[in-house]
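Tokens in:
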């Protein structure tokens, strides 16, 4: 075994000192780039199910490596036109190949999870809107977004449900069609930045008057529907 081989054997299996910092920063950047990821996903028009092609992982890894390198000049430059594998040949003594592949696989799994949650949330929204439309077609009424069991009573002075929902709409020209549009708008608005299912509830203003609210515990989204 020559000197170079002995040197490499000493570091075989060693975790690179930058690995955990780089991994955490990549994961955080991917999470914070969710809107960009979903925009890419919508542009492709592809279902993520069964797809192994990453949409944003390499960009995230490139961006974070450049940011990490700017604060640590000893780290090598990676993406110079030929891709990430340039670093593998130059830095194998610290088992870089294994580290990068591990981080890449974790990011791809995280990306897939985000897309699966998005698809699930889209199906939920589609199912709810379909139920609203079916309810209107069948009886001219809207299924209550709070209990999902009863039809709302919508007239010139109130919107109510046997579950306890009651909103005074006197003088506001609220019809079933107007309420349907408001529900669709709020659902879509929330979906632009969050993948989780929102909930509807009744809340009271400072003057005691009730409102129909939409909220999300995950992203802290909160908006008045009616």
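Residues out:
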């Amino acid at each position: 075994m020559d000197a170079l081989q002995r040197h490499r054997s000493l570091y075989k299996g060693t975790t690179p000192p930058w690995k955990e910092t780089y991994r955490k920063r990549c994961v955080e950047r991917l999470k914070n780039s969710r809107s960009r990821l979903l925009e890419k996903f919508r542009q492709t028009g592809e279902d993520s199910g069964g797809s192994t092609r990453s949409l944003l992982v390499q960009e995230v890894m490139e961006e974070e490596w450049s940011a990490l390198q700017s604060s640590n000049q000893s780290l090598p430059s990676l993406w110079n036109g030929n891709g990430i594998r340039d670093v593998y040949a130059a830095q194998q003594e610290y088992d870089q190949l294994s580290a990068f592949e591990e981080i890449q696989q974790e990011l791809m799994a995280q990306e897939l999870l985000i897309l699966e949650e998005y698809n699930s949330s889209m199906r939920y929204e589609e199912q709810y809107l379909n139920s609203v439309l079916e309810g209107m077609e069948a009886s001219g009424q809207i299924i209550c977004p709070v209990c999902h069991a009863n039809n709302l009573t919508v007239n010139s002075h109130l919107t109510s449900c046997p579950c306890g929902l009651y909103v005074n709409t006197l003088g506001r020209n609220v019809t079933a069609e107007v309420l349907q549009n408001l529900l669709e708008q709020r659902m879509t608005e929330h979906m632009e930045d969050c993948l989780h299912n929102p909930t509807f509830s009744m809340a009271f203003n400072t003057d005691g008057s009730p409102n129909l609210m939409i909220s999300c515990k995950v992203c802290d989204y909160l908006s008045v529907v009616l």
